[in-house]
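#struct-help
A.M.: can someone run this one for me? Single chain, 623 residues.
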Amino acid sequence: MLDPFVFDSRSESCKKPYGAVPCGTAVSYTVRPLRREGWSRCVLVTQREFSGQTAELELPCTGQDGDRNRFSGIFSAPAEPELVWYWFRLFREDGSSILLDRSGYHGGEDVQSWQLTVYEESSTPAWFGCGVVYQIFPDRFCRLELPDPAGMVGSRTIHENWSNLPDWRPDAQGEVRNCDFFGGSLQGILSKLDDLADFGVTVLYLNPVFESASNHRYNTADYRAIDPMLGTEDDFHHLCQEAKRRGIRVILDGVFNHTGSQSRYFNADGFYSDTGAAQSPDSPYYHWYSFHPWPADYDAWWGIRTLPAVREDAPDYRDFIIRGQDSVVRHWLRAGASGWRLDVADELPDDFIGEIRTAMEETAPDSFLLGEVWEDATTKIAYSMRRRYLLGQELHGVMNYPFRTALIAYLLGGDADEFREALESLRENYPPHAFYSLMNFLSTHDTPRILTVLGADHVPGSKEERAVFRLSPARRQLGLKRLRLAALVLFTFPGAPTVYYGDEAGMEGWEDPFNRAGYPWGQEDSELKSFFSKLAHLRREQPALQTGQLHWRWTAGSLLVFARELDGQLLTTVVNAADTPQTLTLPWFGDTARDLLSSEALSPADNVLPLTLLPHQGLLLTT
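D.P.: on it. C-alpha cells below:
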C-alpha cells in the first residue's frame, strides 16, 4: 500500500468501527509506520475522562503493508459511557521510543490525543432529525388584534405599528427592559398553520410562551401559565391539536436555570399575591435562590439582576420542574408539546438534564430533548466539568452552532475543506443518532439574520448604525445568492434543517433585538420563500436527505460537493461559492443525471459527469 499515513482515525484501515461506539464495543486499531524507521513495538495508551484511569495495550506486529509494518490490536470500550483519549507510543529494539498523536511524531510533551466517544445505546425519536423545523419568536410572528396589557405582569408597552423597529435604547436607569410588545399570539400562529404546512414544516420550535414581563419571555414569571398576551392554556392545547392534524409537532423552550425577578417565585415588585423569595425568607420559594445575604445580593444569570439564578439542586424546585406527577416538564407534554429545548444547557447540572429525559420518557416516550450548546457537545466543559450531554442518558440532540459558523465562513470566501473538517469532526465525535438529530440553522433569535451576514461588506460600529442598517440593492442581491446556497446545504445536510421565522422571507437585521422584528406579511420575497419551500418539500420527499449516509465527494476552495446515500439512492449537493465560474468532473455511475432544483438533465460520459458551475450556483443531482 502507498497510503501516506501512519494512523488515521477516520480510515477503517486504522480504526474500525468509525467514530463513536456503544459501550463495550470491540474497537480495532492499526498503526502503520514505515519499516525503515525501525519500530519494533507499538503500544496504545488510553486515558478515561470520567474515571481517570490510564492504561496501555500492546499492539502486536501483524504483518506488512508494502513498505510499512502493521501493528494491530483490539481495544474493548468501557462498559459505562466515557470519553477515551488515546495516542500511541512506538519503540525500537534499543529501547528508544517516540509518541504518535494527532500532531504526528514527537517527544511526548503536550499530547494532542484522539477522542473515542463511548455512549450508552438508547432510543432517539426519529421524527426530529427527519423533519423540517420552523422557529417562531411568538411576539413577532402574527398578530390578529392589538392586545391590552392592563393587568399583566411588567410595565408593557405595545407597538401599534407592526413594522416598527423594536425598542433598543436603554431607559433612564441605563437598562434595556425588553418590555415593548408587538402582540403576536398563539391564535396568530394557529391562523398560519396551513401556510406552514404548505411550506413544508413538520416541527414548530417556539421561543418561551410562559407568562413573563419581557417580550422574549426568557425571564419566566409563571411556568404554569401561558403569557396572557399570547393566549391561554386552551389556546396552546388547540394549537398543538391542529398542528398535529397537519403533521406538525410543537417543541417548547424550557428556561430552568433562572427565573425573572418579577416572577411569582421571586416577586421583587410584589405583583403576585404569593410571598416571593425577595420578600421574605419564609417564602416557600426562598430556598430556590442563593442570597449573599438576603435580600440585597443574590446569584443571577451572568450577573443580570432581573434574572435571579435558581438552585437546581433544591429538592422542591426539582420536584416542581421535573419530578412531580404534574411537574412543569410533564404538564406541558400532556398539554400537547412533543419536546423541550433546554435554554443554556451548560448552566444545568448533568443529573438535572438526565432527570428531565427520564420524566419525558415516562410521560411522552416519543418526545424529543434538545439542548442549547454552542460548541462540540461531546467535549464541552462548563464550570470546570466535562459534560455528558450526548452519552445516552441526557440530550437527544443539540443546536448545531458549529454548522452555522463553518458554513458562513465558507460562503464568505473560506475553503470548503475547512467546512468539511469542522463537520466531519462532529460526525466522528457524536453518536450517530445525535449527529443525525442535530438542529442545523442559519439564524436564531441569538444571532444576526443570515441575509445581513451574507450580504454586508462590514459590520457598523455603533448600535445606532446597526439599528437602521439595510443592505444596498447590490449587496442584498449578493446576499440572496449566497443565502440560496446556504439553504441548499442546510436542507441536504444530516440533521434537522431549521428556519428562523422570516429568513425565508428575506428579513434583515443585526443582533438582538434587530433580528426580532415582526414577520413581513404581504411583503415577503416571494422567490426566496418559494426556493426555501421547494427545498423543504424535497427534504420531506427524499428519504436519502433524511437519513442517508454522508459522503464527501469534493471539498476544495470554493467548491463543496457532498452526497447522501440510502438504499441505492444517491443525492449529490454541488455548491460553487465563488463569484466566478468553476469547472468540476465528478465520477458518475449512471446513464443520466438530473438537477432537482432546475429539472435540467445532464449527460455523463464514460462514468464521469463534467460540470461547469456559474458564479454562486448550486445543484442537487440525482441519477
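A.M.: thanks! The first strand starts at residue 15 and ends at 16.
D.P.: also worth noting: The longest helix spans residues 473-492.
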